[in-house]
Amino acid sequence: MADQQKLRVAIIGAGPAGLGAAIEFGKLPFVDFRIYDQATVLREVGTGISIQPNTWRMLDVMDASRNISPDEIFRPADHHSVQHRKYSESSTCTRVSFGSTKGTFVKYRSIAPPAILSVVRAFAFPEHKISYIGRTAYRGIVPTAEILSIPNFPDGVTFWHGPTDWVYTCNLNGGNYEITVNAKESADVARVSWGEKATLEEFQRPWKDFGPTVQAVINKVTDVQKFALFAGPRLSSVVARGAVALVGDASHPLSGAFGNGAGFALEDSYALAQSVAWAHRRGHTLKDGLTLYDCVRSPHYEEMYKILDAFAASDAILNEKDFSFDEAVAHTIRGKWGAEHFWLYEYDIQDVWKKAAEAEDGRRVALDTSHRESITVKFAS
Ligand SMILES: Cc1cc2nc3c(=O)[nH]c(=O)nc-3n(C[C@H](O)[C@H](O)[C@H](O)COP(=O)(O)OP(=O)(O)OC[C@H]3O[C@@H](n4cnc5c(N)ncnc54)[C@H](O)[C@@H]3O)c2cc1C
Questions:
Q1: Is the beta carbon of 103 within 6 A of some atom in ligand 1?
Q2: Which of 75, 92, 110, 279 is placed for a possible disulfide with 289 were both Cys, Cβ 3.0 to 4.6 Å?
Q3: Is 299 part of a structural domain of the chain?
């Protein structure tokens, strides 16, 4: 196909969404794409990333899963996915629930700043605003041997909960252990966006009420990065101006709430490329393709925001009631870490997209038929 006849696509950002889009558009011979990233160097953020079944599905579809070395994947020896433990000063460590998802955890490289601060979204939806949510994540990597030298330390994927904050510990294999903490922080950290260095003092401060195992973990960390978390309201659409499609964090500014943003990003890229290819095959316009993409992804994000509303309701109860430490932890785990939203991790975008495209084909055929019928009636009358 002559170059001038090709659809020219600019992909802004080479995070999971941009790279997924590049892979998927690379399969379409009628597309000429370029990928742009503001970063001049590829550097390691220094964190692990959980890969849920929906993410693995996309990595398989994109033929990218074979590039992930088995040495960089961690699955706990007892095969559970995630365990939640509460830890108060007085009580001993208690495993309070098991997640039923089948996540695995790999080392992750990325470049900054994050797409949640997207300039493309600001261009497409200038009235939309995001803001700092009052929470900051801190991450550090510690040699595995040091963490496992802590007496009775569970070598798994563990969230250690306080009433509002948590510490996450996860073996990354290859001799590294990830320690991530998520804490309420005042707005002055909001200037920092993604992967800036933090001091040990600010990293250790929120955990003074946690028990000795968590304290021991925190004290092993010598090098910390911080990630101020931002979010904004749901966008009414993930497409704009007939030619702009938002993918990844740009399309759903909800601050990594489900620990599955890379999966959502790959699903977006897949659905977008499929929709553009669908429009091309049928001789429809690019705008038609983007509308189909929007019909697939906007309702999905609407459902996710409903889950966040439920989380907010759980937080409101926590603020109102005078819970003890243990009651508060149990309440938070019930309200936010139950199985109600695990469907997100099993979501099958291929199936959802296929059904949406079939429905749209059917709608167009019905429209066409009724249009022809009305012409026939007009001529007959
Ligand atoms: C603390 C934390 C933990 C998380 N844990 C998980 C997890 O366990 N599992 C999971 O699946 N997800 C997780 N996520 C979410 C996941 O990291 C994101 O959802 C995912 O990286 C989004 O991909 P993206 O491509 O949309 O954006 P990003 O990864 O943010 O990539 C954006 C890219 O765009 C580039 N860019 C930015 N501005 C410009 C510009 N103006 N011009 C050109 N390029 C630009 C950046 O350099 C970057 O390369 C977590 C997020 C956070 C904050």
A1: no
A2: 279
A3: yes
- Ligand 1 midpoint to CA 246 (Å): 13
CA distances to 6, 279, 331 from 282, rounded to whole Å, are: 16, 5, 52
CA atoms within 13 A on the CB side of 213: 24
CB 280 within 8 A of CB 30: yes
Overall number of domains in the chain: 1
Note the Cα 230 to chain centre separation in Å.
13
Residue nearest to atom 16 of ligand 1 (CA): 261
C-alpha distances in Å from residue 158, one per residue of 76, 139, 140, 218, 251? 10, 14, 15, 14, 29
Instruction: Tell me the CA–centroid distance for residue 31 and ligand 1, in Å.
Output: 25
Residue type, 260: N
Q: Which residues of the chain have pLDDT under 50?
A: 88-113, 381
DSSP code, position 101: S
Using an 8 Å Cβ cutoff, are 170 and 157 in contact?
yes
List, for residues 146-202, the tens digit of each pLDDT value: 999 999 888 888 888 888 888 989 888 778 888 988 888 887 765 655 677 888 888
How far apart (Å, rounded) are the C-alpha atoms in residues 194 and 361? 42
The domain that holds 229 is classified in CATH as 3.50.50.60
The pTM score is: 0.87
